[in-house]
Design brief:
The chain has helices spanning about 1-10, 15-70, 85-90, 100-110, and strands at about 115-120, 130-140, 150-155, 160, 165-170, 185, 190-195. The protein is α+β, with helices and mostly antiparallel strands.
Length: about 200
């Protein structure tokens, strides 16, 4: 019995200094790995939004090809030649929002509504979490009138400019009063991206 008591007394636990050293080492490791992991999450979100922007681009091109190829236009009366393809008109296609090209908007809705929560706001709106807003810019080059040139796509805090040639991801300006009236400039009738 005495032998057991002596062996228990000889065994020592960790000292306070040893425990503090281990905690400091763990804190240093966490300081390096957590920001890196958050960067991976942010990159994954951006890649998912790029895929969604591409989906809008492909759907818009399919509808534009069908309608413009049959001699119909996609204007809703606002002056934009592709308005029926934009999220505002697509989101309201079922409720009779005065859209003269309702069939084109319904076709876009059919292509996208299973995958995207379509926003009924405009560019200056405050978007709800998970809403998808987009604006389609058509090519005005002679001979390419039915081609989609670019898609301006917004989801959560990301802005994606998607075209066949380039993809740009930016952070959305949260204060709607600080955003430009439209997210592009028009030079010689050709819209170009505005950098934030």
């Amino acid at each position: 019995m005495n032998r057991i008591k002596k062996s228990i007394l000889r065994e020592r636990g960790f000292t306070l200094v040893e425990i503090i050293v281990v905690l400091v080492v763990l804190a240093i490791l966490a300081a390096f790995t957590i920001p890196t992991m958050l960067g991976f999450v942010e990159d994954a979100k951006a890649k998912a939004y790029i895929a969604e922007a591409r989906e809008v681009y492909v759907a818009a091109q399919a509808v534009a090809t069908e309608y413009i190829g049959t001699g119909q236009n996609l204007e809703t009366g606002s002056g934009n030649p592709a308005d029926a393809l934009n999220s505002y008109w697509v989101s309201g296609a079922n409720n009779g929002n005065g859209n003269p090209n309702k069939a084109a908007s319904l076709q876009m809705r059919k292509y996208l509504s299973n995958d995207l929560k379509i926003s009924n706001g405009n560019y200056r709106s405050t978007y709800q979490k998970g809403d998808s807003y987009w604006f389609v810019i058509m090519d005005k080059t002679p001979g390419k009138e039915g081609a989609v040139k670019q898609v301006y796509y917004v989801k959560n805090d990301h802005v994606i400019w998607y075209s066949d040639a380039t993809i740009t991801v930016e952070k959305l300006i949260q204060d709607v009063n600080l955003r430009p009236n439209v997210p592009w400039n028009t030079k010689d009738g050709v819209p170009t991206r505005v950098s934030y």
